[in-house]
Amino acid sequence: MGGPVIGVLALQGDVREHVAALTGVGADVRTVRRPAELDAVDGLVIPGGESTTMSKLVDIFALRAPIDKRIADGMPVYGSCAGMIMLATEVLDGRPDQRGFAGIAMTVRRNAFGRQVDSFEAPVEITGVDGGPFHAVFIRAPWVERVDAGVEVLGRVTGGPAVDRIVAVRQGNLLATSFHPELTGDLRLHRYFADLVEAAR
User: Is 201 among the annotated ligand-binding positions?
Assistant: First the structure.
């Protein structure tokens, strides 16, 4: 068997950057826009973008039920920024009609770090990722306000007004970060996810 086949949900957001990062760690990468394309992957990345738009497009492209089923069946999924929002069981400050996949038992506050002009970069230590702090890029990012038992907190903000806010979590085969590792050239989180997908195959 070859390496894991990892899909990137290609409806909206920074799809190209995730494809490049996953390719860089040796994954066989496919873009996913249709249920048949989802069937062909071992794991899925939900990229950063605009979570309310993504929620609508998931329904338009008839992907909600298939993704829900694959998550329930144990498919590894990694969500960055908007992808984190899409994986949360509860979203604060979202639109009333906004729906995600409710995979990770957590409450996420949408745009918690502020507007586009409030974007920033900061070091974040990630449990399970060696090599020192991760250079994290936050763009209109959410943060996690609460997690249930069974959700592992992997990273928190280490300084500034948002100190100690949760920005990286894992629950089983589901991984989420508030920030955008695909924009940094640091491939460690993508390697972490690819290893998770490989272990789940």
Answer: no
CB 71 within 8 A of CB 47: no
Residue whose tokens read 């949760």: 166
50 known member of a binding site: yes
Alpha helices in the chain (DSSP H): 15-24, 35-39, 51-60, 64-72, 82-87, 188-200
CA distance 168 to 81: 10
68-83 per-position pLDDT tens digit: 999 999 999 999 999 9
What residues are labeled active site? 81, 180, 182
25: containing domain: 5-200
The CATH number of the domain holding residue 26 is: 3.40.50.880
Residue 119, judged by CB atoms within 10 A of its CB (0-12, 13-18, 19+), counts as middle
pLDDT at 119: 67
Residue 149: per-residue pLDDT: 93
Note the pTM of the prediction, 2 decimals.
0.94
Beta bridge partners of 134: 124
Please state the domain count of the chain: 1
Q: Binding residue per annotation — 51?
A: yes
pLDDT of res. 25: 95
Residues 43 and 4 sit within 8 Å (Cβ to Cβ): yes
